Structures are given as structure tokens and as C-alpha cells.
């Protein structure tokens, strides 16, 4: 037997009400998006010639009536005939938006699943709809429903085109009659919607946000101003990437590289996700690779559905493509800045380095590209750089400043190939994790002609561990991990006349009486050229002892 599953409406309603959305707040986003869609559709029908009525200033108005305990969302968009009300509102999960998109290929429509309207019942005991279609000779239509499967539908007199939705707010949802609450929700979800929204006679949205505009029309100041709008407390960003993809998915947005200070806790969850200018979430974990969550800004993609769960997002193929695309864009931008203005790149490395290293650890695709622009800072060597005055700045003079020296991985290898490969032919990267306390070791290594780099940030331990696995034939050696002669394990000409056992014994003999002096004893054997036994004591330890007034010179 074959047949059709039947749904008992009395049962399905409470389920929709309860489980459709985790947050009740969402109802306002849904109703305002429907009003936006109604206006957007009318625009499209005007372009296609199907709408003959005067378009006028399209707008959405939100208002509260505390006494009547109602919240009203009104628009002068497309409106509905009574057949349409029956089709769109009386049929749960029938999306008029989807139908419209299929017919008109209108990508700016927000609606999708045909469930948004019902979110009104999460906060309202009763919903009333007053609507009139744009179509010639249309009559006004009234629809109301108290959340049960029964509705009322009849003709009324209505002068103006469009739809007014009146929510009779339930007792337990009284917060939605507070102006502050509604203002905050509009600010959160509707701030950048394309059709003007008014609340208390004030427009609440920027209908033309920066990321929807052409990069060629925008100045640096525009980007900085927009950043301020998103993060009023934030310091100016270092640079930004304007995303604009049409195929195989749609994606626009602006990502900012913020200044990251070592001493500050790193702030994640700063990127906001939009779908056709409607705010969706600021938890972008599934959309943006983890390391890029350090960035700030906005991503807008109608291909990331509004109403779906996080676990769904993870498996969504568009989301995975978007993820890969953003990673590539960021890598390309970093590469471009590095090649075009290396000085600028080096100056910003304190902030950039954290993002780059995090990315190299977690994303192999990024690692591939980042190998070319990762830079390693020399622990002490400085280079001089000439800074020319900016054009038009007459007073300023050319200055020469001293800046840290940086190597790419390749440059470091080239500079140290003769001195810093061990007996297995491995490249040794000598580093200091604390240039102050390890100062003596750094100096000793440099005197020997080695190049020591600075890896002293929070992420560096993880970075070192990961790169030892990912970079073939490379070892990181901390500069104070052994006496300078042993840092690079070179081929020894083993002319010692002592066996290994005998050497150890001899070492013990020397070490025992001076163990409290923190010396390292090395038994070289009995060759003519070198001292048979060398005892060394780190400069740092000696100074410590001297300061404490103990121990003497060696
Ligand atoms: P969706 O927006 O996903 O299609 P909704 O449940 O939010 O689903 O809305 C169902 C349908 O009701 C819409 O597609 C639209 O056809 C109609 N509708 C809802 N609100 C309005 C409105 N303000 N003006 C005109 N039509 C509307
Ligand atoms: Mg909708």
C-alpha cells in the first residue's frame, strides 16, 4: 500500500511554537523580514511591469501600543489577496518566498521555509493581519488566529496597499511591549536591512551597508568608519578584505584584521553573520575556520540558511566551500601585503603573527601559502630603515630608524645553511623564548655565528611543536637548552681515547665536588688540541650567584 502521511494540526501547532526557534526574540526578525520581502517583491514586479501602482517610499513601521498590549509591524509592500492569505498563511510550511524566488529569480528575498510567520505565536496570544494587495481592484482582507488551527478570514475596507500585522502580546511575553527591548532587537537583527525601518518615527537601519557597495567606490575612511559602527570601542583595524563572490555560492562581506595585543585576552566571536542583510548570528564557528575567528567584520551569504541548526551547518557543502574560500582570500591578501609592502607587514607582525601562526597550526591549506610569508624575528639583530616623509608633508624629514630584522623561513635557511645543520642534515632553528633571562645564551650563540630568533608569544610553544611535525627536516632548539657547543649536534671527529663508560666516570669525578655551582662538565677525551675536560658555568647563573653574594669566580 502507498499513501500520504497525515498531520494532526492540533498537535503540530504547539510543537512549532515550542521547538521551531530556540529564542523567542527571533519572531521580530521573521516578521520584519517578511515585510522587507513584501517591499522587495513589489520592486521586482515594478521592474517587470506587473505592478502598475505607485511604488512610493517603501518602508516598514514597527510600533507598540502599551494599553492595547499590541506590537504592530506594517509595510506598504505587495500585500495579499484573500486567496493569497489562504495560500500563504493558512498553509503552514508553504513558503511564498520560495515560490517567488523560483518565478522571478530574485536573490534578495529573505524568506525560505514558510515557517517564519508562525514564530509570531511564540509571543502573541492572537495575531491579526490587515492586508491589501497591489493588484488592481483588490479588496482589503482581514485574517486572525489565536494559535489554534482555527482562523477567521473576511473582506474589510482598507485604503492603503500593504500589510499590517498586529500581535496581541501574551502575559509572559510582556517584555516585547517595552520600547528598549524592541529597539535592541531591531538594532541586533535589522540594523542593515535594505528597506527603511521606522520605530518611534526614527529610522533604525542603514539600508546600504558598506559590504554591499563596490570596493572601487569606497575610501579607506569608509572602511574605518564602518568598523567603528560595528565596534564602537575598538581600535582602528590594521587592514581589511572586501569579500565578493558570485559563484559557486554568493558571499559578500568585509573582514578586518584587528590590532591584537599580547597582553590582552584574545577576543573571538566578533564576526557577524548575515543573510541578505538580516543578522543571523555572531557565532560563526562553523562558517569561518577557527583561526580566522580572530578577525572582525561581517559575512553575508544568502546561501547560509537563516533557520537551521548548527549541526546542519557543519555538514552543509556551501558552508564548507565558504570556509575554504575565506581561508584562501585571507592567505592571498596577506601574501599580497607581504610582497608589495614588506616593511608594513613587518610593522604589523605583532598582530598578524598570531593569526598566521594559528592558521599554520590548524589549516594545512593555509600553511602551504603561509610558508612564504611567515616571518621570524631575529632576537637581537636590527636593520636600519629609511623613512621618507609622506608626500605633501613639507616639515617632515627623512628619518632613519632601527628595526628588528626578520627572515622568512627560506631566508633563515639560506642564512644559516653553513652553520646550523646538524649531523643528520637537519635544519636547526635556534630560538629564545625569553630574551631577557636568556640573554647570555643568545649572545653566546650569536658570537658563534648562529642566528637566534624570538619566539616568545603565547602561541609559540604550539607553533614550534606543530612546525617540527609539518616542516620536514627541521628542529627547533631553545638557545639555553645546552652549552653553546652542543646546541647543534655536529659530526664529531671522535678521537677520544676513552670509552663511553670511562668518559662518564671521569665526568662524575669532576662534577661531584662542584655540583652546587651549576656547572656543566664536558669530557672531550685526550686529544692534543682541546682541553681534555671543560667545565662551563652559564653567565646567567654566575651573575645570580654573584648577586646573592655566594659562589666565587671559576
Ligand atoms: P517565508 O517567508 O519563508 O516564505 P513565512 O512563514 O515567513 O515564510 O511567510 C509565509 C508567506 O506569507 C510569505 O512567503 C508571504 O507570501 C506571505 N507573507 C507573510 N508576511 C507578509 C507580508 N508582510 N506581506 C505580504 N506577504 C506576506
Ligand atoms: Mg518569512
TrEMBL record:
**Which sequence ranges are marked TM in the entry?**
none
The entry's ATP-binding residues are 30, 34, 75, 80, 95-96, 163, 310
Q: Which UniProt keywords apply?
A: ATP-binding, Chaperone, Cytoplasm, Nucleotide-binding, Stress response
Q: Which InterPro entries match?
A: HATPase_C_sf, HSP90_C, Hsp90_fam, Hsp90_N, Ribosomal_Su5_D2-typ_SF
Q: Extract the Gene3D superfamilies matched here.
A: 3.30.230.80, 3.40.50.11260, Heat shock protein 90, C-terminal domain (1.20.120.790), Histidine kinase-like ATPase, C-terminal domain (3.30.565.10)
- Name the family the entry cites: Belongs to the heat shock protein 90 family.
Is Cytoplasm included in the keywords of this UniProt record? yes
Q: Which gene encodes it?
A: htpG
Gene Ontology molecular function: any one: ATP-dependent protein folding chaperone
Database matches in PANTHER family: HEAT SHOCK PROTEIN 90 FAMILY MEMBER (PTHR11528)
Name by which UniProt lists this protein: Chaperone protein HtpG
- One Pfam family assigned to this protein is HSP90
Amino acid at each position: 500500500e502507498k499513501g500520504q502521511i497525515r498531520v494532526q494540526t492540533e498537535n503540530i501547532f504547539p510543537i512549532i511554537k515550542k521547538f521551531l526557534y530556540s529564542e523567542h526574540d527571533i519572531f521580530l526578525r521573521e516578521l520584519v523580514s517578511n515585510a522587507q520581502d513584501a517591499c522587495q517583491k513589489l520592486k521586482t514586479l515594478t521592474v517587470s511591469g506587473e505592478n502598475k501602482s505607485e511604488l512610493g517610499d517603501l518602508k516598514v513601521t514597527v510600533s507598540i501600543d502599551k494599553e492595547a498590549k499590541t506590537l504592530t509591524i506594517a509595510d506598504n509592500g505587495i500585500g495579499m489577496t484573500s486567496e493569497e492569505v489562504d495560500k500563504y498563511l493558512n498553509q503552514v510550511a508553504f513558503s511564498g518566498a520560495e515560490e517567488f524566488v523560483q518565478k522571478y529569480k530574485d536573490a534578495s528575498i529573505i524568506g525560505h521555509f514558510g515557517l517564519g510567520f508562525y514564530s509570531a505565536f511564540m509571543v502573541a496570544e492572537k495575531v491579526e493581519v490587515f492586508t491589501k494587495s497591489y493588484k488592481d481592484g483588490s479588496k482589503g482582507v482581514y485574517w486572525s488566529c489565536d494559535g489554534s488551527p482555527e482562523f477567521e478570514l473576511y473582506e474589510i475596507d482598507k485604503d492603503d496597499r500593504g500589510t499590517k500585522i498586529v500581535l496581541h502580546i501574551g502575559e509572559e511575553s510582556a517584555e516585547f511591549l517595552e520600547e528598549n527591548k524592541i529597539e535592541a532587537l531591531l538594532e541586533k537583527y535589522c540594523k542593515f536591512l535594505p528597506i527603511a525601518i521606522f520605530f518611534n518615527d526614527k529610522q533604525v537601519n542603514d539600508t546600504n551597508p558598506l559590504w554591499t557597495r563596490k570596493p572601487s567606490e569606497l575610501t579607506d575612511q569608509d572602511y574605518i568608519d564602518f568598523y567603528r559602527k560595528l565596534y564602537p570601542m575598538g581600535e582602528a583595524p590594521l587592514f581589511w578584505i572586501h569579500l565578493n563572490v558570485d559563484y559557486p555560492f554568493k558571499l559578500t562581506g568585509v573582514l578586518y584584521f584587528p590590532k591584537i595585543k599580547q597582553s590582552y585576552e584574545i577576543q573571538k566571536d566578533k564576526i557577524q553573520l548575515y543573510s541578505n542583510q538580516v543578522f543571523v548570528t555572531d557565532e560563526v564557528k562553523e562558517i569561518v575556520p577557527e583561526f580566522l575567528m580572530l578577525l572582525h567584520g561581517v559575512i553575508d551569504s544568502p546561501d547560509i540558511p537563516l533557520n537551521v541548526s548548527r549541526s546542519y551547518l557543519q555538514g552543509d557543502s556551501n558552508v564548507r566551500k565558504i570556509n575554504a574560500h575565506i581561508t584562501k582570500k585571507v592567505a592571498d591578501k596577506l601574501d599580497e601585503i607581504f610582497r608589495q609592502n614588506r616593511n608594513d607587514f613587518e610593522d604589523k607582525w605583532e598582530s598578524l603573527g598570531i593569526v598566521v601562526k594559528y592558521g599554520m597550526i590548524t589549516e594545512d591549506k593555509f600553511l602551504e601559502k603561509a610558508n612564504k610569508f611567515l616571518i621570524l624575528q631575529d632576537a637581537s639583530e636590527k636593520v636600519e630603515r629609511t623613512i621618507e616623509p609622506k608626500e605633501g608633508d613639507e616639515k617632515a624629514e627623512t628619518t632613519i630608524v632601527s628595526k628588528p630584522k626578520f627572515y622568512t623561513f627560506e631566508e633563515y635557511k639560506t642564512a644559516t645553511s653553513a652553520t646550523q645543520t646538524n649531523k643528520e642534515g637537519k635544519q636547526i632553528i635556534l630560538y629564545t623564548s625569553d630574551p631577557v633571562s636568556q640573554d647570555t645564551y643568545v649572545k653566546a650563540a650569536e658570537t658563534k655565528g648562529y642566528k637566534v630568533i624570538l619566539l616568545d608569544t603565547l602561541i609559540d610553544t604550539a607553533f614550534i611543536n606543530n612546525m617540527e611535525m609539518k616542516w620536514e627536516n627541521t628542529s627547533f632548539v631553545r638557545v639555553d637548552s645546552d652549552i653553546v657547543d652542543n646546541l647543534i649536534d655536529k659530526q664529531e671527529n671522535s678521537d677520544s681515547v676513552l670509552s663511553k663508560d670511562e668518559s662518564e666516570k671521569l665526568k662524575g669525578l669532576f662534577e661531584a665536588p662542584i655540583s652546587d655551582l651549576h656547572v656543566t662538565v664536558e669530557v672531550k677525551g685526550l686529544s692534543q688540541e682541546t682541553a681534555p675536560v671543560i667545565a662551563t658555568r652559564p653567565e646567567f647563573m654566575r651573575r645570580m650567584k654573584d648577586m646573592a653574594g655566594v659562589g666565587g669566580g671559576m
